[in-house]
TrEMBL record:
Domain of life: Bacteria
InterPro entries named in the record: 4-hydroxybenzoyl-CoA_TE (IPR050563), HotDog_dom_sf (IPR029069)
Protein name listed in UniProt: Thioesterase
Organism per entry: Flavobacterium petrolei
Alphabetized Gene3D superfamilies for the sequence: Hotdog Thioesterase
Example of a GO MF term: fatty acyl-CoA hydrolase activity
């Protein structure tokens, strides 16, 4: 598998006054896809709650290249671009592609795992999180730090 993918369906509420997808909707789609992917890898909300950890973001950035309108057919492709050796910190990239395979936007997030009791970065990284990130598809420019 080269990436996780998802076809997007836009709602009227996803639009801005210019009738294209509003900037914050991109972030919502990315966040939802990340959670769906973690769930598919066995890293469910229940598991994270039971083990007392969860993902946190340090940075979330979107680069917009082409506008997306309500009826556009868009697919989002998600992969990791960077993961520490102990999987404690990571970067994930979401690419929004139109039906002509043109890049419309790219979201990059940098994150880590948080210990929910201590409210600090989880140390060591929970084994299930390490396993999930090890099988997450990787970008062409993937690096281990």
């Amino acid at each position: 598998m080269t990436s996780f993918s998802k076809e997007l369906s836009f709602r009227w509420s996803d639009l801005d006054p210019n009738f294209h997808v509003r900037h914050s909707a991109y972030y919502d789609f990315g966040a939802q896809h990340r959670i769906e992917i973690l769930e598919s890898l066995g890293l469910t909300m229940k598991v994270m709650q039971a083990q007392g950890f969860g993902p946190i973001l340090f940075r979330e950035e979107c680069v917009f290249r082409k506008e997306i309108k309500l009826s556009d057919k868009i697919s989002m492709y998600t992969k990791t671009s960077k993961v520490n050796a102990d999987a404690s910190r990571w970067s994930i990239v979401h690419e929004f592609m139109n039906e002509d395979n043109k890049l419309c936007a790219t979201i990059t997030v940098d994150g880590a795992w948080m210990d929910l009791k201590l409210r600090k970065l989880a140390s060591p990284t929970p084994a299930i999180a390490m396993e999930a990130l090890s099988i997450f598809p990787k970008s062409e420019s993937f690096v281990t730090t």
